[in-house]
Write a structure and sequence with these properties.
With 433 residues, the chain is of the alpha/beta class. The chain is built from 15 helices and 17 strands. The protein has three domains: 188 residues, Molybdenum Cofactor Biosythetic Enzyme, Chain A, CATH 3.40.980; 78 residues, Alpha-Beta Plaits (2-Layer Sandwich); 154 residues, Maf protein. Helix content is 38%, strand content 24%. β10 and β11 form a beta hairpin. The protein starts with a strand and ends with a helix.
Length: 433
């Protein structure tokens, strides 16, 4: 089955909103063996939406449309699809009642405009929306583009030779995702069943640049389908994504497992997790498993490291203290860093970072302490201490380590990279115990 994904919304074209829906839908469709050949983004313009519908109708088996199902005048998706299919819009009293009940439960006044969302093209099957007021729908029409009027319709669209279907979903991700999984995905599975599945597994690394990782796994990067390996660099991380296409999930998983087994030894020193696992979750889980504790003192990162750690469920079992000591005075008052050390060496120095790590560890009585200080930029740097200079220190029961970093990028990117270095340093230390 060949599908297209069409995202509708002028805000997407202007860059005010990032289209994450297409990426998520493509991943989910690949799992059930659906081929996606085209992605399109179109503004809230009826003529251009019709062009996209006609183009997709001539080259694909169906399309998934996101966006434009709201109650306002610029939400034109439903009306345009109905006109394209040659079908009138029909009021669905049961949908209108659900919308009214939702407003009533929330003790809100329903605007007259919201009634527009209870109209669907004749013959469309509703896709219930449990999160918002905009229902989606599935509509099947003839594949031949020469008969736009008098179109036959299916009350419950199933696989019918010669038909093209449109699945329309809201653009809001938290509404779109459950609607796809609960209604659209089962509908697609009924279209004859997948002839193959495409799945992937991502091996995540930190601590080495992309070029070094690529050199280690060059042989696997040259693989051709049905199993391929791609390399993707992110800020402070490099991912290796293994993709496999197979007749069923079991065969695809075995193909991925074989390649993963070969690659893992090549990256064992920098590997920290798979798929959605983060560096912070790796660190927190290992701290808990090893019954170790951590305290953090941050300056230039402004609490970002503590924020990342506390995003991990259960982190309270590992992190006991997180301090933002941004000024000279706070470093002395809260951590006991000697004022003369700061005056002599500066707040951005190896000595200051090391003392911050040791003192936060001692005062919190934890296994480890991390101290971060630096110049996040873009202002504040000097020739001797330029913007991007950051010191990251790790205090252990026996020793204190400190790294001098010269980071590039925006203020936010420098802060992120500093926390990445801190987490990876702790990860490597934990691996020793």
């Amino acid at each position: 089955m060949r599908l297209e994904i069409v995202a509708i919304g002028t805000e997407l074209l202007l860059g005010h909103t990032v289209n994450t829906n297409a990426a998520w839908l493509s991943q989910e469709l690949a799992k059930i063996g659906v081929d996606i050949f085209f992605h399109s983004t179109i503004g809230d313009n009826p003529a251009r939406i019709k062009e996209a519908l006609a183009l997709a109708r001539g080259r694909s088996d169906g399309m998934i449309v996101t966006g434009g199902l709201g109650p306002t005048e610029d939400d034109v998706t439903t009306a345009v699809i109905a006109e394209f299919a040659g079908m009138p819009l029909i009021l669905h009293p049961e949908i209108l009642k659900k919308i009214k009940d939702r407003f009533r439960r929330r003790k809100m006044t329903m605007a007259k405009l919201n009634e527009r969302q209870a109209y669907l093209p004749k013959g469309a099957r509703e896709i219930p929306n449990r999160v918002g007021t905009a229902p989606g729908f599935i509509l099947a029409i003839p594949q031949e583009p020469s008969t736009p009027k008098g179109t036959r319709y299916l009350p419950e669209p199933e696989k019918v030779p010669g038909t093209f279907f449109i699945a329309a979903l809201p653009g809001v991700p938290r509404e779109m995702k459950p609607m796809f999984l609960e209604t659209v995905q089962p509908f697609l599975r009924k279209q004859g069943g997948p002839k193959s599945v495409i799945i992937s597994k991502t091996l995540r690394t930190s601590g080495l640049p992309e070029s070094t990782i690529a050199a280690r796994v060059r042989k696997w990067l040259k693989l051709k389908p049905p199993v391929t390996v791609g390399i993707y660099a992110h800020l402070g991380e490099v991912d290796l994504r293994i993709m496999a296409k197979g007749k069923n999930l079991g065969k695809a998983n075995r193909a991925i497992g074989k390649i993963e087994k070969e690659i893992r030894p090549k990256i064992k020193d920098v590997f920290f997790g798979v798929d959605e696992e983060t560096l912070e979750s790796n660190v927190v889980n290992h701290l808990i498993a090893k019954k170790k504790t951590l305290a953090v003192a941050e300056s230039c990162t402004g609490g970002l490291l503590t924020h990342r750690i506390t995003n991990v469920s259960g982190s309270s079992k590992a992190l006991t203290r997180g301090l933002v000591t941004y000024s000279y005075e706070s470093k002395t008052a809260l951590l006991g860093v000697p004022a003369d050390l700061l005056k002599k060496k500066g707040a951005v120095s190896r000595e200051a970072a090391s003392m911050m790590a040791r003192r936060v560890r001692q005062t919190a009585n934890t296994t480890f302490g991390i101290g971060i200080t630096g110049i996040a930029g873009p202002t504040g740097g000097t020739k001797k201490k330029p913007a991007g200079l950051v010191y990251v220190a790790l205090a252990t029961p026996k020793k204190t380590y400190c790294s001098e970093l010269f980071l590039k990028g925006s203020r936010e990117e420098i802060k992120w990279q500093a926390t990445q270095k801190a987490l990876n340093g702790l990860r490597l230390e934990l691996a020793k115990t």
